[in-house]
Amino acid sequence: MKAIISTLIFIIISTTGFAQQASVEDRIFGLQLGLTSGISAYYEHKLNHSFALRTEVFTTWGYSKSLGFEINPAIALEPKYYYNLKKRKEKGKNIAKNSGNYLSLRSMYWKDPFYEDSRKHRMYLLPMWGMRRTIGEHFSYEFAAGGAYEIVPKGKDELGLSIDFRIGYTF
């Protein structure tokens, strides 16, 4: 897993010099409803012309045989590298509100307030590929997929997959 994360970081850093002119937005704030991520409020801040840092507060939801349906509060920090903004702009496509494809390394933490079990205290690292598109002035949709490395305190870490589809409103 460390090799995958290192390779992803190397690719992101080594290609930042190629994108010029087109740039991510300075600041974006919005609300989203996700297929697996629940309801979220996020803030994306420009780091340079192709990088943005997303901070997010959201709910996770899911179902398991042992616990039933559950909803949990969570936080995330996600540096995003938008790699095709220049190409989209040259083709006359919309890049407003960071409409483009991206690579990211999402770090996420959540703790179920109703359980004391160590499995209810979770941290994740998620190397992701995603795409974000804006519809009209304020609406957007976002799809992301990638790996998931779950860090379980006092337990066995796990690998998995992460897929999410979100619709949202950007202010």
From TrEMBL:
Has the keyword Signal been applied to this entry? yes
What keyword terms does UniProt attach to this protein?
Answer: Signal
Question: According to the UniProt entry, where is the signal peptide?
Answer: 1-19
Q: How is this protein named in the record?
A: Outer membrane protein with beta-barrel domain
Q: Which organism is it from?
A: Sediminitomix flava
